[in-house]
Design a protein that fits this description.
single chain; 16 helices; about 80% helix
């Protein structure tokens, strides 16, 4: 949970520190990070699918299995990273223009994304190592490394965004350059320490390249639905951002502020889901199905109860927004109401995330997960928000309310799957 929180703060630092430059800069930085978010979700899809194997291999103490799984995961994520690197370098303006028609936002967003180009490939490697280290119960290295990454990002942000001493004032481009430097340092530490300590994932090139056609086929059958799941889910989130961005620059600024602050609490549930996945997957690998099912039921009860506490924190936090963001009164008012809407959705969202990331994927039930996660988003939330955005005079928070409508629908589906027990499969 702590490592997730710190990791989210690395990119959040850009939005908060750029926030002193005004609404257009916030919107541009937020949209640039949407491209990085899409990239992150694709990596999460690959690594989350791979994590199903890693946790069960770990339960069996199959070190060679872990290493060939890590190698295949690295090959796929580096290929994805190369595509994003090329796109961010050559067509950053076209990518930002998919979200906004504001020429100033497009120009600033393209500048941010182009400067972020060196971050994609190192982050792909880091992501694989962090997710694999979690699955083999070695979380301290990832946490410490991410603290270092955050510190580097914040310090360089100060010098490069606003200019200080010998450093020029680079604005949004400076924020991106600081993030790229932080991600490169993060990768170097993770890889070097993992090999120095001889962790289970630190194999030779032959070990990492030890996957054959049979294993690759089994990996794809489990991981591909997760990749599709995360791709369509993240695409849905980018469509939601596009709906807001095309409504008004103030609207996307309000959405970005809401997302940035809510991540401070939401990362705890992402971390909880990841931890549950390791616990459940390890028990399946050990052959203890009874314990795996018990963990799943307890986690599904705990998550929404904990989310109620997190929701209570959001509303008072929203009152402090004027101290962090230099935006107009209308943006602040809309953001504060959006926080109330988000708080109401939190318990539903926490249950659904725990079921998807923590229970079903650990049990290899990835095809069900894809339908469970994608269909309510694309058939309920996005159409409702698209229609709402075209209603004259409807406040921004009304559009945001439509985006949250998917969560109660998903809750009913997830409860049914949990009670049926059909989510548990042996994949190794």
């Amino acid at each position: 949970m702590l490592q997730n929180l710190i990791n989210s703060l690395v990119n959040m630092a850009d939005t908060v520190m750029v926030g002193r430059l005004g609404t257009a800069a916030i919107a541009a930085c937020g949209l640039g990070n949407q491209i990085f978010f899409l990239f992150t979700m694709l990596l999460f899809g690959v690594c989350s699918g791979a994590g199903t194997f890693t946790a069960q291999f770990w339960g069996k103490k199959d070190i060679q299995g872990i290493r060939k799984n890590t190698g295949l995961c690295l090959a796929i994520t580096l290929a994805v990273g190369a595509l994003f690197t090329l796109a961010a370098f050559f067509i950053p303006d076209k990518l930002i223009a998919c979200y906004s028609r504001d020429t100033e936002v497009i120009e600033l967003g393209a500048r941010y994304l182009h400067a972020l180009t060196p971050a994609f490939l190192p982050f792909a490697v880091s992501f694989v190592f962090i997710m694999t280290l979690r699955s083999i119960e070695q979380v301290a290295l990832a946490m410490v490394t991410t603290i270092i990454s955050l510190s580097v990002n914040v310090v360089l942000n100060y010098f490069l965004i606003f200019g200080s001493g010998p450093f020029p004032e680079l604005g949004v481009a400076g924020a991106a350059m600081a993030t790229a430097a932080a991600r490169i340092i993060e990768m170097l530490i993770l890889v070097s320490v993992s090999y120095a300590k001889k962790y289970a994932l630190a194999g030779s090139f032959r070990d990492l390249a030890g996957f054959n056609r049979a294993f690759t086929g089994r990996f794809i059958r489990i991981a591909f639905p997760v990749v599709v799941n995360e791709a369509f889910w993240s695409l849905g989130i980018t469509v939601e951002n596009a709906i807001f961005a095309r409504t008004h620059t103030d609207a996307i600024a309000a959405l970005n502020i809401t997302a940035t602050i809510s991540n401070l609490t939401w990362v705890f549930f992402m971390g909880f889901g990841a931890a549950v996945s390791v616990m459940v997957g390890k028990k399946i690998g050990e052959g203890d199905e009874g314990a795996a099912r018990l963990y799943a039921k307890k986690a599904a009860k705990f998550a929404p109860l904990a989310a109620l506490s997190a929701a209570l924190v959001l509303v008072p936090v929203s009152r402090a927004l004027p101290f962090f963001f230099n935006v107009n009164e209308q943006v602040l008012r809309n953001t504060q109401v959006m926080f109330i809407v988000l708080s109401c959705a939190y318990p539903f969202r926490a249950f659904n995330l725990t079921m998807i990331v923590g229970v079903c994927r650990a049990g290899g039930d990835t095809l069900f997960c894809a339908f469970y996660d994608i269909l309510p988003l694309w058939l309920v939330a996005i159409p409702a928000a698209w229609i709402a955005a075209r209603v004259p005079g409807l406040p921004i928070w009304g559009i945001y309310l439509c985006l949250c409508m998917e969560e109660p629908v998903k809750l009913l589906v997830g409860l049914s799957r949990l009670k049926s027990g059909r989510w548990l499969h042996h994949v190794t």
